[in-house]
TrEMBL record:
Subcellular location field: Cytoplasm
CDD domains reported for this sequence: AAK_G5K_ProB (cd04242), PUA_G5K (cd21157)
Ligand binding (substrate): 62, 149, 161
Domain PUA intervals: 286-369
InterPro entries xref list: AceGlu_kinase-like_sf (IPR036393), Asp/Glu/Uridylate_kinase (IPR001048), G5K_ProB (IPR041739), Glu/AcGlu_kinase (IPR001057), Glu_5kinase (IPR011529), Glu_5kinase/COase_Synthase (IPR005715), Glutamate_5-kinase_CS (IPR019797), PUA (IPR002478)
Catalytic activity annotation: L-glutamate + ATP = L-glutamyl 5-phosphate + ADP
GO CC terms, sorted: cytosol
NCBIfam families: proB
GO MF annotations in UniProt: ATP binding; glutamate 5-kinase activity; RNA binding
Source organism of the structure: Bifidobacterium vansinderenii
Gene label: proB
Residues noted as binding ATP in the record, renumbered to the chain: 22, 181-182, 223-229
Protein name as catalogued: Glutamate 5-kinase
């Protein structure tokens, strides 16, 4: 795909039929960190106008914790995970009730989808999320997605919603991703630093952004800062989806393709979304060591990783978790989704599928990592 000009990318965003809009906690809360319903209503007005022009919008919204800690009697956003989860549990319902009433002023219905990181790597869960989102969009509903904070386990969670929004953009095959935050774009350094300049166009987000210093959150409520926003823009770009990053008050102009914020050009044609996600964003929970033959087979393309070709396992993981596959020299070959729990793996090492059936039963007679769940690095 040849690199598009900034004007072409902006036009593609203006003409997008399916759009994922992500709004961060920092854009929905006031200086105290509590949810500010006025800000939420401003965002809803911009989205409603877009939907009225026949676009389909999925809103990925943070703000559950910001909505919940005040009603629970805390002055500031809690820092321990258990209290954050409790605040999210209280706040998610409150957040949705604000969205419900704000969108209903425009005659629009909303539907809540809460996702855990695990839902996005397991094939059946992934397809479920995809089917529900698509049906909601067909029905003219604005799906509102958040991480299922109350249940997300600490080890495998998104934490921020930036990467989740890129994944959702993949799932619904969006034409554009709009990341709304508390700064009006990507700067050459955290914007609080003197001399930081705004960048308006990034033609290839995979190129090292050498002269850009990327920092974490600048607020007391945000989570990932610019690091996770760039990760999201990268996942979108390699999925063929353009991204615009700007502040929430620019939502309307950004959706119209006006010259606000920073735009990131798509750099590839669309890939198949789930495998792309496995390769790009899933954090491996363990490692499988492939012998020479298995390494060769995997590198050749369409082969599964069979127990017969595995000589070692490291880390603790469950069936369905992402794992790294390395060769005996430690070279990283691929990422994939494990078909076994880590504690089951030693008993399967070196066994053929027929032996697995005989020794352990038919339910174990499958590859350690199926080729559909495996992505070369
Ligand atoms: N190079 C950079 N350009 C712009 N913002 C940056 C940069 N590095 C760090 N940041 C910080 O990232 C923050 C946005 O991330 P975050 O606080 O996580 O927002 P959100 O809640 O919207 O996800 C900005 O307020 C800014 O302080
Ligand atoms: N899922 C959490 C969001 C965590 C968070 O702060 O994310 P973000 O503001 O997008 O960096 C919530 O709803 O409070």
């Amino acid at each position: 795909m040849s690199t598009q000009s900034q004007a072409e990318v902006r036009r593609a965003i203006a003409e997008a039929h399916t759009i994922v809009v992500k709004v961060g906690s920092s854009s929905l809360s006031g200086s105290s960190g509590h949810l500010d319903p006025e800000r939420l209503r401003g965002l809803v007005t911009a989205i409603a106008q877009t939907v009225r022009m026949d676009a389909r919008v999925v809103l990925v919204s943070s703000g559950a914790i910001a909505s919940g800690f005040g009603p629970l009697g805390f002055d500031a956003r809690p820092t321990d995970v258990a209290t954050q989860q409790a605040a999210a549990s209280v706040g998610q319902g409150l957040l949705m009730s604000h969205y419900e009433s704000a969108f209903s002023r425009y005659g629009l219905r909303v539907g809540q989808i809460l996702i855990t990181a695990r839902d996005t790597v397991q094939a059946t869960q992934y397809r479920n999320v995809q089917r529900t989102l698509n049906r909601l969009l067909e029905l003219g509903v604005v799906p509102i997605v958040n991480e299922n904070d109350a249940l997300a386990s600490n080890e495998i969670r998104f934490g921020d919603n930036d990467r989740l929004s890129a994944l959702v953009a993949n799932i619904v095959r969006a034409d554009a991703l709009v990341l709304l935050t508390d700064v009006d774009g990507l700067y050459t350094a955290p914007p609080s630093e003197p001399g930081a300049r705004q960048i308006h166009y990034v033609p290839n987000v995979l190129d090292a952004l050498d002269d850009v210093r990327i920092g974490g959150t600048g607020s007391s409520v945000g989570t990932g800062g610019m690091v996770t926003k760039l990760e999201a823009a990268r996942v979108a770009a390699v999925s063929g989806i353009p991204t615009v990053l700007t502040c929430a008050s620019n939502a309307g102009p950004a959706l119209m393709g006006d010259r606000v914020g920073t735009v990131f050009a798509p750099i590839k044609h669309r890939g198949t979304s789930r495998r792309l996600w496995i390769g790009f964003a899933a954090d491996p929970r363990g490692t499988l060591v492939a012998d020479e033959g298995a390494a060769k087979a995997i590198l050749g393309g369409r082969a599964s990783l069979l127990s017969a070709g595995v000589v070692g396992v490291r880390g603790e993981f469950s069936s369905g978790d992402p794992v790294l596959i390395v060769d005996e020299q430690g070279n990283k070959l691929a990422k994939g989704i494990s078909g076994f729990d880590s504690e089951e793996v030693p008993a399967t090492l070196g066994r053929t599928t027929a032996q697995l059936r005989k020794l352990l039963g038919a339910e174990y007679a499958h590859p350690l990592v199926h080729r559909d769940d495996l992505v070369l690095l």
